[in-house]
């Protein structure tokens, strides 16, 4: 006789007072100490689950401390990221993004627009001023998806003139992937699912890492952003704090909360994958980056499930009286249209408008 463990397992712990207060005041991100949980302290998982549930149903953004990623690695990754944007224009342009969203995206070369945000805020029509270098999960030439030229599953373009960038950032990415996996039980318990619920969906999880440089512009157009309002596509996003301000998060009252620096903390938020899985109960919060006062860098780590994992609403998350609000599809079939809806550098008509010379050269 086989017995199966039920997926549903109610978390009866109440959210902590500090989290409730941070959500009511909506002036600063709630801060969660994940150290005791990572050290296996009894009860810590249930408490974090309750706190994350309350945060995800309201603000959708928080900060974690004692997350186990050495600050020296984060500092060195920031240092390398700053170098990345100093390499020659010729080299950067050789690595431009195209069929794969892997490589260099110059400043003011795309408009961040998305259906999800159009419904919540407005359609952005201005070019973002940031430049970025985009990486997906690291693969080698023998990887079947690389061989088959599967979109966004190609080889990363590492800058050859900066060899230390690859070694540092690869370590950064694998450390973030490990932390992402460690945080999964918290989301499971936040959704009243058994702690190991997500394990089978994250066997070879995908990730997307965005190294960005926000140049302080002297003149911004009306309605232009360093990074326009968007919601992430991720299951969860990890973002090391920078003391340079710029990030703003939409509160439940539709005001913009300017994120305050917390030393050695990581910002955590969730995106559309968890929004779908939770049947809209966990929000994918709109956020944006405004023109910074001086040079600003970001190393956003978007953490996703396996390409073939289902991102249909989880049956236990569809509450009584509700219908599943999203269709059943694999993560990969969600991800490619998500990126095409957000970035527009592959849209020829769009390119004609923003970069007529380049569009003409491409024919
Ligand atoms: O630069 C930041 O602080 C946020 C970046 C961001 O929202 C993103 O990369 O999706
Ligand atoms: Fe984001």
Task: Please outline what is shown here.
The chain contains twelve helices and twelve strands. The chain has one domain: B-lactam Antibiotic, Isopenicillin N Synthase, Chain (Jelly Rolls, Sandwich), CATH 2.60.120. With 363 residues, the protein is α+β, with helices and mostly antiparallel strands.
Give the tags.
binds 2-oxoglutaric acid; 4-stranded antiparallel β-sheet; 12 strands; binds fe (ii) ion
Task: Explain what you see.
This protein is of the alpha+beta class. It has a single domain, classed as Jelly Rolls (Sandwich). It is 33% helix and 16% strand. A hairpin with a 5-residue loop joins β8 (247-250) and β9. The termini are far apart. The mean pLDDT is 94. The structure holds 2-oxoglutaric acid and fe (ii) ion (FE2). Residues 210, 212, 227, 232, 239, 247, 287, 289, 298, 300 line the site of 2-oxoglutaric acid (AKG). Fe (ii) ion binds next to loops.
* Fourth CATH level, the homologous superfamily: B-lactam Antibiotic, Isopenicillin N Synthase, Chain
Give the names of the bound compounds.
Answer: 2-oxoglutaric acid, fe (ii) ion
CATH architecture: Sandwich
What's the number of domains? 1
Tell me the fraction of residues in β-strands, as a range: 15-25%
The largest sheet is: 8 strands, mixed
Numbering strands along the chain, what is their spatial order in the largest sheet? 1-2-10-7-12-5-4-3
Give the structural class: alpha+beta
End-to-end Cα distance, whole Å, is 65 Å
């Amino acid at each position: 006789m086989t017995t199966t463990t039920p997926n549903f397992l109610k978390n009866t712990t109440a959210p902590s007072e500090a989290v409730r207060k941070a959500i009511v005041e909506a002036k600063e991100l709630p801060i969660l100490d994940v150290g005791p949980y990572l050290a296996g302290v009894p009860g810590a998982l249930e408490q974090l689950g309750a706190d994350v549930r309350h945060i995800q149903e309201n603000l959708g953004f928080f900060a974690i401390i004692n997350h186990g990623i050495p600050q020296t690695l984060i500092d060195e990754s920031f240092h390398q990221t700053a170098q990345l944007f100093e390499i020659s224009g010729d080299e950067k342009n050789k690595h431009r993004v195209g069929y794969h969203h892997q490589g260099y995206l110059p400043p003011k070369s795309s408009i961040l627009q998305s259906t999800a945000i159009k419904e919540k805020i407005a359609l952005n029509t201005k070019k973002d001023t940031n430049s970025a270098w985009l990486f997906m999960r690291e693969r080698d030439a023998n990887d079947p998806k690389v061989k088959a030229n599967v979109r966004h599953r190609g080889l990363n373009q590492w800058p050859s003139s900066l060899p230390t960038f690859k070694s540092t950032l690869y370590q950064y990415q694998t450390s973030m992937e490990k932390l992402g996996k460690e945080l999964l039980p918290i989301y499971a318990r936040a959704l009243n699912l058994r702690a190991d619920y997500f394990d089978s969906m994250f066997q070879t999880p995908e990730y997307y890492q965005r190294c960005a440089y926000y140049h302080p512009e002297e003149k911004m157009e009306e309605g232009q952003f360093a990074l326009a309002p968007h919601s992430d596509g991720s299951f969860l996003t990890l973002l090391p704090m920078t003391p340079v301000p710029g990030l703003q998060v939409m509160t439940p009252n539709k005001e913009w909360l300017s994120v305050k620096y917390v030393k050695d903390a990581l910002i955590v938020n969730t995106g559309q994958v968890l929004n779908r899985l939770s049947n809209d109960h966990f929000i994918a919060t709109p956020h944006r980056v405004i023109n910074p006062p001086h040079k600003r860098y970001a190393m956003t780590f978007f953490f996703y499930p396996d390409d073939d994992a289902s991102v249909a609403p989880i049956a236990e998350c569809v509450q009584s009286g509700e219908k599943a609000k999203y269709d059943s599809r694999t993560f990969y079939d969600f991800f490619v249209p998500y990126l095409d809806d957000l970035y527009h550098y592959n849209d020829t008509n769009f390119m004609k408008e923003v970069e007529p010379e380049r569009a003409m050269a491409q024919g």
